[in-house]
Amino acid sequence: MSMELSIRNFGAPGRAMVGVMQHARAGAARRSAFLLCRPYGQEAIRTSPMYRAISDRLAREGCDVLRFDYHGSGDSAGDESAQSLSLWVEDTMAAHELLLAEDPQRAVHWFGLGLGANIALRAAARARRVPRHLVLWDPVLDGPRYMQALCDSHRTELSRELGLEWHQLVRRGREREPALPGTVLGFPFGEKLCEELRHLRELPLAAAARRGVRLSCAVPEDDRPRLEGALDASRLTLHSLETRTNWMSTEAMGTAIVPQEVMRSLLSTLE
Fold first, then answer.
1. What confidence tens digit (pLDDT) does each residue in 32-66 have?
2. What totals of helices (H) and strands (E) does the chain contain, helices first?
3. Cα–Cα distance measured from residue 250 to residue 263, given in angstroms and rounded to the nearest whole number
């Protein structure tokens, strides 16, 4: 059975975006639709095969699926250095409206990984019509720690690529210490985005839950205490990550295998 793919150009004036709509497999029983929210930079590139695999599986289950690039990222037009979490929240709500227009009566669920989970959570608190279920996978819980990880990965990746220790590259004048705002791992992180990341210290779960969004969230075992008790169990399902991939690393490039616990969480929203 074939699954139809189509390119969608959408967005508000000045916020042009590109998305891929994958319709449910022909003959499959129609189920909920899904919006897939991506992270940024190298993490977006290195999770692309996994997002395609997720989309294929959900389409086989009877779901229409939209995955898209925020304005100023991926295949979407725009100045990367001028972007921010707040602007990407607006983009996510525009993508949601596009998916709703396909079938206004059908429930829509969202999935976000890494920084994409943080963006999705903020958007769910503001969307005109909220998603029914939001699956947050390994969201950023500490912005400064995330920024430090970006810089550390920048050093590690260049050392691996150039075959020298980082201190040797710096001493020989071949590289400079990474700094944010700035370009790290080949992608610009502008002042607005970095300022928001510096203040990112917790997940605003309650704002989305108050609007009736059902939340599933997967975090490393060590981070569970930060979220336990944040919401009633009827509104939040908390998971410990069984598999954690460093999507900032070249070692993750091309990984299309979707961790089983990701698909279990996504498919459980259809039941």
1. 999 999 999 999 999 999 999 999 999 999 999 99
2. 9, 10
3. 24
Contact at 8 Å (CB) between 66 and 51?
no
Q: pTM of the prediction?
A: 0.95
* Cα–Cα dist 157/129, whole Å: 42
67, two tokens: 């995955």
Task: Tell me the C-alpha to C-alpha distance, in Å, between residue 133 and each of 34, 96, 211, 257, 267.
Answer: 10, 13, 11, 23, 11
CB within 8 A of 145, min separation 6: which ones? none
Domains and their CATH numbers in the chain: 5-141+202-268 (3.40.50.1820), 142-201 (no CATH)
Contact 261, 243 (CB under 8 A): yes
Cβ neighbour number for residue 60 with a 10 Å cutoff: 13
